[in-house]
Design a protein that fits this description.
The protein has about 200 residues and is an alpha+beta fold. The chain is built from five helices and eight strands; from the N terminus they run E-E-H-E-E-E-H-H-E-E-E-H-H. The strands form two sheets. A six-stranded mixed sheet has the order 3-2-6-5-4-8. Strands 1-7 form a two-stranded antiparallel sheet. Strand 4 and strand 5 form a beta hairpin. The longest helix is centred in the C-terminal third of the chain and has 14 residues.
């Protein structure tokens, strides 16, 4: 980013709006809206992918609005609040799910499976307090819920490790559609034992 960029809550999903002025998504059915207002990915994770893929990866190449440095983005707790710069406060709301558009953009065959197996999805945020941010702004964690559901754990629970699903209801800040998906999957796993009639 050059100069300051306004960050606002974009409202419901459906028109491609995200939290940063001048940015938008084109898969309006699955992306954008208040629960996915901002997407952050760690420079350290991009560096790991650079080594694995054998190609340079510039900041923003994964579609992230924020490329962080010195923060373990995937270990952020769902519901955690980050202050970015002086005014903006963001709430960790979820994780990125890889899709065909992402795979096509990177031109990597099998990318969806590879990205999923790595379980380094990056974090989506809601905008709690609006304002301007600029490259180089400090990020401070100003609130952390007392549960242990991280971005990576939630992603793993909903992709490859369903045994982790019972831990997800503790994360009240998950988007409503994710909560409903968790509830449905947990309901399917419950064992129903018929009562014996005497």
């Amino acid at each position: 980013m050059d100069g300051a960029v306004m960050v606002t809550a974009p409202g419901p999903r459906g028109d491609g709006a995200v939290g940063l002025a001048g940015d938008r998504v084109y898969d309006v059915r699955h992306h954008g809206g208040s629960d996915q207002a901002v997407y952050a990915y760690a420079r350290e994770d991009l560096d790991a992918w650079e080594a694995e893929l054998g190609r340079p990866l510039r900041n923003g190449v994964f579609g992230e609005n924020l490329t962080t440095s010195g923060l373990m983005v995937n270990e952020a707790v769902i519901g955690e609040h980050w202050r970015v710069g002086q005014d903006v406060v963001l709430e960790v709301s979820g994780f990125r799910v890889p899709c065909g558009t992402f795979q096509g953009w990177l031109e990597q065959t099998g990318w969806i499976k590879r990205f999923t197996e790595a379980a380094r999805p990056g974090a989506y945020f809601r905008v709690i307090a609006e304002g301007r941010i600029r490259a180089g702004d400090a990020v401070e964690i100003v609130h952390r819920p007392d549960h242990e559901v991280t971005v990576a754990l939630a992603f793993r629970a909903l992709t490859r490790e369903p045994d982790l699903l019972p831990r997800l209801p503790a994360a009240e800040a998950l988007p409503q559609d994710i909560k409903e998906m968790v509830r449905r999957r947990l309901d399917k796993t419950k064992t129903h034992i018929p009562q014996r009639h005497r």
